[in-house]
């Protein structure tokens, strides 16, 4: 093992980010748009709920959640109800479906050559590492 895990985590994230930006640009979207669309596809959420779910992906000084939801609303892809929950419109559902195909292509590319067990084991190990540090920081 030539490089530590931190290197590979950051390197992979940068590669995923670059590929998502490249592929989703064909739809006029970014990875952040995709994350909002995919989160709202699962269930309507308030701005706070979206922020809690997607906060780890947002970097300070980068595009804001409000920027992304505002742009999607201007496209007619999401609406906000009286309780402040964002919901995808039929156009937003169609946009999500188109973006989902592109994201699945990215996932297929970076999972090439891995078995389901290898992928699951990697995710399990990363989850454990995160939990170890979270427990340490909580004490």
Write the layout of secondary structure elements.
Layout: H1 5-24, H2 31-42, E1 45-46, H3 47-54, H4 65-74, E2 78-80, E3 85-88, H5 90-111, H6 116-138
Antiparallel strand pairs: 1-3, 2-3
List keywords for this structure.
Arc Repressor Mutant, subunit A; mainly alpha; 6 helices; about 70% helix; globular; about 140 residues
Mean pLDDT: 93
CATH topology: Arc Repressor Mutant, subunit A
Helix content: 55-70%
Tally the beta strands: 3
Shape: globular
- Gyration radius (Cα, Å) is 17 Å
Percentage of residues in DSSP E strands: 5-15%
The helix tally amounts to 6
Instruction: Return the CATH class.
Output: Mainly Alpha
Q: Which CATH architecture?
A: Orthogonal Bundle
List the uncertain runs: none
Protein name: Transcriptional regulator SlyA
InterPro entries: WH-like_DNA-bd_sf, WH_DNA-bd_sf
Organism: Nonomuraea coxensis DSM 45129
Brief description of this entry?
With 139 residues, the protein is mainly alpha-helical.
Description:
With about 140 residues, the protein is mainly α. The model has no long low-confidence stretch (mean pLDDT about 95). A hairpin with a 4-residue loop joins strand 2 (about 80) and strand 3. The protein is built from 6 helices and 3 strands, in the order H-H-E-H-H-E-E-H-H. The chain is globular, with a radius of gyration of 17 Å. The chain has a single domain, classed as Winged helix-like DNA-binding domain superfamily/Winged helix DNA-binding domain (Arc Repressor Mutant, subunit A). Helix 2 (about 30-40) packs across helix 5 (about 90-110). Strands 1-3-2 form a 3-stranded antiparallel beta sheet.
């Amino acid at each position: 093992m030539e490089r530590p895990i931190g290197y590979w985590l950051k390197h992979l994230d940068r590669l995923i980010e670059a590929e998502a930006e490249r592929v989703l640009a064909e739809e006029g979207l970014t990875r952040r748009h995709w994350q909002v669309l995919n989160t709202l596809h699962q269930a309507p959420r308030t701005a706070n709920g979206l922020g809690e779910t997607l906060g780890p992906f947002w970097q300070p000084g980068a595009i804001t959640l409000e920027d992304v939801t505002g742009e999607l609303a201007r496209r007619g892809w999401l609406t906000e109800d009286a309780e402040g929950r964002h919901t995808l419109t039929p156009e937003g559902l169609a946009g999500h479906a188109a973006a989902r195909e592109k994201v699945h292509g990215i996932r297929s590319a970076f999972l090439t050559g891995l078995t389901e067990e290898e992928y699951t084991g990697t995710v399990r190990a990363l989850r454990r590492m995160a939990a170890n540090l979270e427990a340490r920081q909580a004490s």
